[in-house]
Amino acid sequence: MSTIEGNPWQRVSRRVAYENPWIEILHDDVVRPDGKPGIYGVVHFRHLAIGVVPLDTGTDRVLLVGQFRYTMNHYSWEIPEGGGDFDEFPEAAARRELVEETGYSGGEWRELCRAELSNSISDEVTILFVATGLEAGPASPEGTERLQVRWVAFDEVMAMIANGEIADAMTILAMQTLALERAVR
After folding, report:
1. Considering the domain boundaries, does residue 3 fall inside one?
2. Do 80 and 171 have their domain in common?
3. Same domain? 37 vs 76
4. Which helix (H) or strand (E) holds 171?
5. How far is CA 138 from CA 62, 98, 105, 134, 152, in A?
6. Is 102 helix (H, G, I), strand (E, B) or coil?
7. Which pTM does this prediction carry?
């Protein structure tokens, strides 16, 4: 099997078409791989996407967060997720988000995986963790968040993914990674 390495795209110019504190929309004039002129739009994320599967190993339950997702115009059950600054340790950002959204803290943490979330149009990268042995405390969600929190059996979370009840990519990726680890043990 042969692979093609190197970048076949040539950027001619780049400008910011839109920006806010979370993203920049970049407009690139390019020379495409076929040699013809073209354009490319890139959504640049100003933060690292982080998420954590809070897992109670004694009861085999996962702590899910429910919230209305404005972009999708529907309610979503997901693992606790958020953003971290690029100069912040990813685990520290995940710990901060978990406390903020759920009040849970402490415990044993392990990185599950890293992934590119939509690499055809954005540069968003996620780092996902699993945390066990957590202790409850007060949550302090941001003003943009009206959250519900509930513990759900691991198998029920997987069923929610299978039937489309959970559609969040980071949740699916994290849970599928854990399920795969369990299958190959």
Report:
1. no
2. yes
3. no
4. helix 169-184
5. 18, 11, 10, 13, 20
6. helix
7. 0.91
Tokens of 169: 């990519």
Question: What is the C-alpha separation between 151 and 145, in angstroms, rounded?
Answer: 19
Half-sphere exposure of 41 (CA within 13 A, CB side): 6
Which residues span the domain enclosing 24? 10-45
Q: At what angle do helices 169-184 and 154-162 cross, to 10 degrees?
A: 120
Rounded to whole angstroms, what are the CA distances from 154 to 12, 57, 89, 163, 179?
Answer: 49, 10, 28, 14, 9
Residues 117 and 143 in one domain: yes
Report yes or no on 135 lying in a domain: yes
| Pair (31, 116) in one structural domain | no
In a domain, 5, yes or no: no
Average pLDDT across the chain, whole number: 94
pLDDT higher than 60, residue 184: yes
Distance set, CA 137 to CA 78, 93, 129 (Å): 20, 18, 20
Amino acid at 98: L
Single-letter residue type at 143: G
